Model the fold of this input.
Amino acid sequence: MGDPGALKYRILATDAVIVALATLLGLFVRFGDELDATTALGPIQVVGTLLPVFWLLVLIFMGAYDRRNLFVGLTEYSRVLLSAIIVLSVVATVSFLFKLDTSRAYVLVTIPVGTLGLLAERWLWRRRLLARRRQGLGLAPTLIVGESDERESLREAMVLRPWAGYLPVADLARPLTPAHWPAWFDTLTAELDRTGASALALAGSSASDAAFVRELSWRIEGEGVDLLVGAGVGTTTGPRVSLRVASGLPLLHLDEVALRNTQRVAKRTLDLAGALLGLLVLSPLLVVIALAILVTSGRPIFFRQRRAGRDQQSFLMWKFRTMVDGADRDREALREVHGSDGPTFKAIDDPRVTSVGRFLRRWSLDELPQLLNVVTGAMSLVGPRPHPLDDVERYADRDLRRLIAKPGMTGLWQVAGRSDLTWDASIELDLLYIENWTFLGDLAILARTAQAVVQGAGAH
Done:
């Protein structure tokens, strides 16, 4: 029995047993000897079959098996309770809407008993884990970073509190200035490999340098190393930060940037609903634009180009054609004449733009075919803008971080100045969006995008 991350499949299995037993108990209490496996399926049998599976899916999508929630204070128990409320609400709503004869006695036995069983089971798992930790088993090897006295203080706290789950195996002085960061990160990587540390703890003043914490979090992204920081995390706040209440240590847990299951489902649902609705409502406008391009400058109506998507995977992006056919051949020549701010190139008075194309760009109508890219999953409604592959080849290491997210039709850049922004400013906004994604944030950006488009600010 190791760390919480390795236990999630065992916990999922025991959760499945608990929910199945609660379902059988509910059926027995309601029907008793009347329950016959050969009886034709009715509403109650259907509910009895689907409810355990649905309950487990709710637990999964609520993050009940994520490492950040397992064995963490009341967070874990709250996920179990909330899942029961959701299951009860869905069963009641479906039964009402479809007039299903679902037994109230069955539901009022199964869900409360299942909830109590899940809570008791999680409590037993926690007792077992804490007992093993007190014996020095299943502790996460931890590398401590900070000043000498800060490292020693945190080391003593971890040794005195083995139930927190961390075993200090090495320490490292923090870099003095940003100029020392590159060499220091190389040393850190070597130390992590040498010690096999699965956690990195920033002690005291090391956690107060927001720029350092942010750079460090990106450097260890995807390496399977938990980042623990002191309370002074500066600008690195929001949904990525969670407090490990039960640990007894003065540390916050900084999650990786990648979206969790529930967040991915919520974002994809918004993308699909928004894109399909947009295509339906805007279909007459799309036809008018296509005819305008065809009449004024002939074919092709659409412009297709390979762009860099999430994790640098290329995809074919669609736009209405706004330039003369074959305009891509002149990109490099115009780049040399006009110069560029960063890897990307966009001329303010581009001679390749057609008259209709200038109007479409002014109101961002040329981007509408990208709704198809959203439907197929290559793009999102909101995210960093996708750039051509030759521009991505000019990216600095920091710039590549924007490709951790799915590209979007709009983003923070769109509501903060669009093409008027410098390259560094747009990168900063992209990273800020990626690190602090929320569902309501996407809705706000979509609303503000409509306002920015109407005003036409920064559109070239």
Notes: The CA atoms of residues 83 and 89 lie 10 Å apart. The beta strands are 140-145, 166-172, 199-202, 226-229, 241-243, 252-254, 302-308, 314-320, 380-382, 408-410.
